[in-house]
Amino acid sequence: xxxxxxxxxxxxxxxxxxxxxxxxxxxxxxxxxxxxxxxxxxxxxxxxxxxxxxxxxxxxxxxxxxxxxxxxxxxxxxxxxxxxxxxxxxxxxxxxxxxxxxxxxxxxxxxxxxxxxxxxxxxxxxxxxxxxxxxxxxxxxxxxxxxxxxxxxxxxxxxxxxxxxxxxxxxxxxxxxxxxxxxxxxxxxxxxxxxxxxxxxxxxxxxxxxxxxxxxxxxxxxxxxxxxxxxxxxxxxxxxxxxxxxxxxxxxxxxxxxxxxxxxxxxxxxxxxxxxxxxxxxxxxxxxxxxxxxxxxxxxxxxxxxxxxxxxxxxxxxxxxxxxxxxxxxxxxxxxxxxxxxxxxxxxxxxxxxxxxxxxxxxxxxxxxxxxxxxxxxxxxxxxxxxxxxxxxxxxxxxxxxxxxxxxxxxxxxxxxxxxxxxxxxxxxxxxx
Length: 433
Hints:
The chain is an alpha+beta fold. It has three domains: about 110 residues, no CATH class; about 140 residues, no CATH class; about 160 residues, Tick-borne Encephalitis virus Glycoprotein, domain 1 (Sandwich), CATH 2.60.98.20. The protein is built from four helices and 31 strands. A hairpin with a 5-residue loop joins strand 14 and strand 15. Helix 1 packs antiparallel against helix 4. It is rod-shaped, with a radius of gyration of 36 Å.
């Protein structure tokens, strides 16, 4: 049969549970400025350990069944720093120390002395390097795939003027040895010219000059030239143009024809270049197989101009900065003006993120309650996108937390008062003796 003493146990339980809940609120408030922090909540439950009065079970107070993390989206604070990353949506960043992996929403990363992207505690940030195996690995911004050094493909788009006079006579020959034709001779014969910088296998930059000759009605002939001191064997003079790959007449030039609407007629099929050239360098670099594509190109009665030039090949340059896209792809900006893909950030999610264990330093660890990690890339599946130049702020609402403190304080005080009151009643009983 329950007695008044049962109220003492209920009061004690109330003090303990409200004290724990106040500690949770204190933890939240102290982390109001912690990057990527998710507020926690104490979950109360009743205790049934007493007897039965009038067929109704009598409780014995309350306890804390769990401390739940509220995984809400935090507010983004713009910082302008490329390695400040925030996740807009689901997922956690993955960091590692040796074989141990941890998870975090705090994306205030940096680069260590070896070039690895790390968190503020020095743990390596994991992702998918461009030259990796497809598994999560540390990301190093100084790792640039060397096969991307040489240029193999150039695509140019633009317009050639339909109103300029048609070339009278043949295109000047540039293959005499010693050279005779100059760049000035080609400029006088051509309707338009432009230059493209390409890289050889050693990363050295070379300039290819493209001349557009108006060789007929609705017809332009394009030829590509290199300076002779870069391709001649033991050159005795320099500064003269050489037609690239002149030993293959079918490949070193392109005759572009246009219709009455200014559009190209019979352009190459997809995957077939306009000019396929082999450039044999005299600096020790491997011969370069380069494809030149003129797409799209038009012929209107307007000033000849180039709209865009796109090419592969990065050359050799030091990394000066990094850029990270919404899909997590990391590009290195090089000192030679080029960019190179380093890899992509990796994200991980869990069937039950609430089951992750807090271990401090903004880190979470897998537990039996969280399930196995689901690995993916930003913007794929259920994973969120990456916001570079921003950090995710704490989800703690200080105003709400202080309201909780007031209610929890009242619960704590009331539980204490229950014990005091019952103590007074027991004193009355003792005085009856």
